[in-house]
UniProtKB/TrEMBL annotation, chain A:
Sorted UniProt keywords: Cell membrane, Copper, Electron transport, Heme, Iron, Membrane, Metal-binding, Respiratory chain, Transmembrane, Transmembrane helix, Transport
Family, per entry: Belongs to the heme-copper respiratory oxidase family.
Cell location: Cell membrane
UniProt name for this protein: Cytochrome o ubiquinol oxidase subunit 1
Species this chain originates from: Wenxinia saemankumensis
Pfam families assigned: COX1 (PF00115)
GO MF term set: cytochrome bo3 ubiquinol oxidase activity; cytochrome-c oxidase activity; heme binding; metal ion binding
Principal cellular location given in the protein's record: membrane
InterPro entries per the UniProt record, alphabetical: Cyt_c_oxase-like_su1_dom, Cyt_c_oxase-like_su1_sf, Cyt_C_Oxase_1, Cyt_c_Oxase_su1_BS
Domain Cytochrome oxidase subunit I profile, residue spans: 50-569
UniProtKB/TrEMBL annotation, chain B:
A Pfam family hit: COX3
Protein name: Cytochrome bo(3) ubiquinol oxidase subunit 3
UniProt lineage: Bacteria, Pseudomonadati, Pseudomonadota, Alphaproteobacteria, Rhodobacterales
Function of the molecule: Cytochrome bo(3) ubiquinol terminal oxidase is the component of the aerobic respiratory chain of E.coli that predominates when cells are grown at high aeration. Has proton pump activity across the membrane in addition to electron transfer, pumping 2 protons/electron.
GO function terms (MF aspect): cytochrome-c oxidase activity
Domain Heme-copper oxidase subunit III family profile: 1-209
Membrane topology: Multi-pass membrane protein
Family matches, as InterPro entries: Cyt_c/ubiquinol_Oxase_su3 (IPR024791), Cyt_c_oxidase-like_su3 (IPR000298), Cyt_c_oxidase_su3-like_sf (IPR035973), Cyt_c_oxidase_su3_a-hlx (IPR013833)
The keyword Transmembrane is assigned to this record: yes
Cell membrane is among the record's keywords: yes
Location of the protein in the cell: Cell membrane
Gene3D superfamilies found in the cross-reference section: Cytochrome c oxidase, subunit III, four-helix bundle
Oligomeric and partner information: Heterooctamer of two A chains, two B chains, two C chains and two D chains.
Keyword tags: Cell membrane, Membrane, Transmembrane, Transmembrane helix
Automatic annotation (TrEMBL), chain C:
Primary subcellular site in the record, as a coarse category: membrane
Gene Ontology CC terms: membrane
Family from the record: Belongs to the cytochrome c oxidase subunit 2 family.
Listed name of the protein: Cytochrome bo3 quinol oxidase subunit 2
Family matches, as Gene3D superfamilies: 1.10.287.90, Cupredoxins - blue copper proteins (2.60.40.420)
Amino acid sequence: MTPFGLLDWSDLVFAGFLRDPSVNEAVASAAGAFAVLGAVAALVVLTVKGWWRPLWSGWLTSLDHKRIGIMYVVLGLVMFARAIAEASVMRAQQMAALGEPGFLSAEHFGQLFTTHGTIMIFFVAMPLLTGIINFVMPLQIGARDVTFPLVNAVSLALTAAGAALLMVSLVVGRFSTGGWSGYPPFTGAAFSPGEGVDYWIWAVTLSSLGSTLTGMNFAVTIYKERCPGMHLFRMPLFTWTALCTSILMIFAMAPLTVATLMLALDRYAGFHFFTAGSGGDMMNYANLFWLFGHPEVYILILPAFGVWSEVFSTFSGKTLYGYTSLVIATMCIAVLSFTVWLHHFFTMGQAASINAVFGVATMLIGVPTGVKVYDWLLTMVRGRIRFRVPLILGCYFLATFVIGGLTGVLLANPTVDYGTHNSLFLVAHFHNMLIPGLLFGMFAAIHFWFPKAFGFRLHEGLGVLSAFLWMGGFLCAFMPLYALGLMGGMRRMAQLPEGPFGPLLAVALLGALMIAAGFAVFVLQLWWSVRHRDRLAVPHGDPWDGRTLEWALPAPPPEWNFAVLPEVDRRDPFDAAKLAGIAYALPDRYEDIEMPANSAVAPALGAAAFAVAFGLVWHIWWLVAFGLAAALAAIVARSFVTETTRTIPAAHVRQVTEGWRSIARVATPCPRRAEATGANRGRARPQQ
Amino acid sequence: MSDVTATRHPGLNLNHTDRETHDRAESVMFGFWVFMMSDLVLFAVLFATYAAQSVHGIAGGPAPAEIFELKSTLWQTLVLLTSSFTMGLAALALKYRDDRRRLVLWLLVTAALGGTFLYLEGADWLRMARDHGAVPQVSGFLSIFYALTGTHFLHVSAAMVWIGVMLVQIGRFGLKPEVKLRVMRLAILWHLLDVVWIGIFTFVFLFGVVQ
Amino acid sequence: MRLIPCLPVLLAASLAGPAVAETGTQAGFLWAAGPIAEAQRAHFLSIIGWMSVVIVPLFVALPVVLWRYRAGGPGAFRPDWGNSPLGEAVLWGVPALLVAVLGWNLWTETLRMDPYAPLGPDPLVIDVVTWNWGFVFVHGAAGVAEVDRLTIPAGRPVTLRMTSDSVMQSVFIPRLAGQLYAMPGMVTELNLAADGPGTFTGRNSQYNGPGFATQSFDVIALPAGEYDARIAQLAAMEGTLDAAGFDALKGDDAARPQGFGAVSDGFLAEIVGRYADPRMAGMVH
Ligand code: HEM
Ligand SMILES: [Cu+2]
């Protein structure tokens, strides 16, 4: 064995193309080339523009929760681009492969749905929601940062290391074909030798470690860092959902970590957790995976529910309807989500009564979910609804989410599930929940809080255009899949039989392309808005007539968020302050503020984690040992660092705060009808 | 002063005037408890798997009763319990004494007992492997047996490294608040590992032998 | 009123209906051809009906609310209105009642439709062994086996006893029976019946590698007489299906025989035994 373990030149994706110059290999090589060129381009830009230093000291080593949040979102968006491209290729393949093999090999198709699913869940959805919670939650509870800023940065580094592993797998070696759920024994060494499943295992493990830490950090922050007067029942709903999601993360990620590590022991060391024979139990994997997997879908959706709550309330200019109901419903969902995992394998042959119990438990979740939908609707009742991008997406979410809810209730019935499990009907169902629910929620959040993060709005017209492309695209891409599933189309099929599937698959392909186009327009919108940021600037910080504490800050907020920690005595405190005319009052005293100092520990740990994972995938044992030693050294060394904070002098805080507030106070308040125009500089005229 | 005592974290001996560090201690200790909780979930999942595999996963290999030897396990348990006791003495020394000699002494004793535990457990594994061919590759039951006890073993080893680092830090920084907080958290981890071991002793070894 | 939530189904029916008539085999339980699929369809439609109680109001109310309360619209502005006791009661009460009804239905249907329960006295027992990528069906009573094709007598209850000689698979005959996993070292049972003669597609629905997409089989339901003729035809075939014969079958995709004229005793148990814990063997029948 060489010093590079199993690694060999022939593992490069381009070597595959040279060996076999087929369309299939060309697609793989093109993807690999794209990844390499993208990385090179990024390096060149950083070097030419001289951005390395600001990137390092301003971002990579920063412990500021806002910057960490933004980096999470950027990571999610980059990975989203890849996963969407893969979805389109899959759709094109199925279109081309009616009753014939098509242009992709079955093996390649297997990699595509596996990477698509894995990326979308662990490296798009999780980073997006983690990033947005990171940015918003401390602001909403009136805190200066999360409780453990360094742990926060470490979580990001671990997640990024996992994502990097996935990107490397485009160029070096092949990825797993076992799907995002990675069921053994198919993913065991006997049926999937080679590096693919190992890539999957370590990418997912890194991500789940990062999420466990994140969950603890957020939960502790929400318990301990709320500003005076911010009782639990005064927290904004988004923070409530962040809390529930964090608690779910604390409990749900461990089963996944155990499952993937056991699978790794089976593969690397010949253990028998999930093998066929020798006392292995593949059904245990299904239990462990879904013990994580079902709470996971609520980890994904709850923050989006929080976003929708803020969006409906803000863009109706009205308090949330049924706040208490919404909180209780959120908690019910969180608790119930641990009692239903078996519905992912009603068809595993257990007793009918067991299926019935889990089926009923699943259906119970429909109650709080239904309550939420109507609470949101009633939030708009007696409001003044403004059709900004987040609200447009929100209304679409309400309409399509109930269809997803309906199909969810259908699938909760074992009787129906026997006929729809593993079919495209199921694929349609979960995309129906994940795209209008989670993904659109995240894009609504980006639209909503972008001005807060960067000081300028996103171009409204382009936003509407991309929203409509997404909305139309989703309908085309996934409604036909319900039908296809009922017609006998299964998931994960590299080719469908000839017959009635063609027309519906064509519509689905069109839909996928529309979604991709919507994303392109979104990127265009970002670019345009950055170019014209002066026109879109909202320095006073309150572009949407916001109601919660984060809108009381300038845009972008200073590193320390609040010059003086706020005190609140009600829900929607900023709205009340504006109505009372005391929103921009100056604090009467300033103090020195201690903020966490930058630290290189997180990037170091991320790099070490990547080295360990890559070494494990390719059996490069010295690299594994080196990475582990480096990680341990970094942690121990950090514990000897005595200067972990940086003091910001009161005078500086005063200067910044008064500079902003004195301008904001005299700024012309913008009426809501001019919200989407240049007249909106971030000072809102209260609505009476 | 009374006001400060009221919010003081039990077991901490922070300077009475240092209000901010007390508050900080609250979040740090709470955070660590949450961390321990997620660690317990991990062990719970391993226990659940053990419950299933130790019955259904024997696959013609040795059964629990054939390979376990209660005497050795009992010694391991006694040693670990004692180490928990000495770790408790270390925590008391941290709270009530300003000199570090006792704290260091009890930490050293704890580490020695921890090392003894690791040695005994390792020897026990070797015995099973040697006398019964009971290695994890034999059956589902042995896979989870080694995974469960091995995870505990790794935790104890990590805690030993932690003790080492703390000894250096006590020497270098003295008993400043950060160091105290770290010792407190170390103690929590140590006691928790003891609790987990009691679970292992009961559910794995005692039940295994009884069956 | 019930139309809106039924859209996906209607879409399916309208687009797929003619095509199905053409090909005849490929379809789901909406085109039921046996009692199980029939019951699935009825249950499916009844849930959609019940669920429209909460879904239809939303579809009606959403446009109305958006219109009435748009900025500049006719609706009154009451920014502090965030609660109404009656509203809460309805909001929680209606879904709770609905879930009670649906939950009851779920419970009874699930127990009634237990895949392990035979659909009548004296079911025909057929053993199924799957592998990567194929199926063999053993007609135990007749001592014959067929490959990638399942012939059953129309109208008679059938019990499939299934195991896998590779990874986890899911044997799925949408128009007749739904699906259940076949797993190495274990036996699961799926009961089904066909109302009348016909050809239906069955397949594995659990991804198991490159051959997955084409791992399907035809289910052919024949009138009793023709069924017997088919069995006789199988009995005339060469070869014996035993462990060795089976491994040869797995190993050679190119020359896959259509069937075996003889089957060794306890063939299913032998395949199961490859993976099962010998101490537990008594528990797997
Ligand atoms: C944006 C547009 C999207 C398109 C066009 C799309 C398309 C697809 C396609 C074609 C498949 C394969 C279906 C099959 O197995 O036959 C798939 C699977 C999947 N998608 Fe998406 N998807 C999209 C977004 C998402 C999002 C946002 C998520 C999650 C956050 C997601 C999660 C998944 C998962 C988990 C799978 C299953 C992978 C597996 O079988 O293991 N997708 N998607
Ligand atoms: Cu679920």
